[in-house]
Design a protein that fits this description.
elongated; alpha+beta; four-stranded antiparallel sheet; 6 helices; binds uracil; 234 residues; single chain; 20% helix
């Protein structure tokens, strides 16, 4: 059970102060009855709350899929560059979502945003061994030797990469898919460079079993579905 004003403030863009005003104006109902006080207790699992006749669905956390465009930083604020949270629709901004992990400024594709710190922590944990899949276009065609090199677990200054998968497009070996477990700074680019290739274009297409929704336009955000959340035990 939580206070009515907290319920509404958590689940909408109304502040607690605004909720008090709305209650005074008899604009808030609980299970169809006009609420008398903002501090009344409601059950967030089963009580039906509405403001100005519109139902408010309780939730504290939000989980968003962004098809990240190039040119945006995976951050909540920056003095110079645009940041991914600017792409969150106005009506969801009050949840204050932040990016889960990072994609480079020039990388496109699947980026999750949430306000659930535990979710962020779980996904980022190295123990989770969550493979991320990328599509890359290279300046030089990839070959069988590269597949072996990626699978061997490359050594870098600050870490040793777990065996990574490299898949080469049989129609055009400049196009590859890479699956890595870690997600260290510039990892895919560094691994490709190690094999003598430069990445010209990079896009994340999956995190574990969660695939980028290819029907989501670049720069757009949508909430994860119940099925997608279930992938991560939510
Ligand atoms: N690897 C990179 O090099 N860049 C990214 O944005 C993600 C993985």
């Amino acid at each position: 059970m939580i206070r009515l004003d907290k319920f509404i403030a958590d689940a909408s863009s109304f502040s607690r102060k605004e909720v008090r005003e709305l209650v005074k104006r008899k604009a808030v109902t609980v299970n169809g009855t006009v609420a008398k006080t903002p501090d009344m207790k409601v059950d967030e699992r089963c009580d039906s709350v509405s403001v100005n006749g519109k139902n408010i669905f309780y939730r504290k956390f939000i989980y968003l899929m962004l098809n990240k465009p190039q040119g945006y930083l995976s951050a909540t604020e920056d003095d110079r560059d645009p940041v991914v949270v600017e792409l969150v629709p106005e009506e969801l901004k009050h949840f204050a979502p932040f990016p889960v992990g990072r994609l480079d400024k020039d990388t496109e594709g699947l980026l999750l945003l949430t306000n659930d710190g535990q979710f962020d922590h779980e996904l980022m944990s190295p123990r989770k061994n969550l493979y991320k899949r990328y599509y890359a276009e290279l300046d030089v065609p990839a070959n069988e030797e590269d597949i072996k090199l990626f699978a061997s677990g490359m050594q870098f200054k600050e870490f040793t990469a777990k065996p990574a998968l490299l898949e080469i497009d049989p129609d055009d070996p400049h196009k590859v898919y890479v699956e890595i477990a870690e997600g260290k700074f510039h990892q895919v680019k560094r691994m490709c460079e190690r094999s003598g290739k430069n990445v010209l274009y990079l896009k994340r297409v999956a995190i574990g079993k969660l695939k980028l929704d290819e029907s989501l336009p670049v720069g757009s955000v949508r909430e994860l579905t119940a099925e997608e959340l279930a992938i991560f035990g939510r």
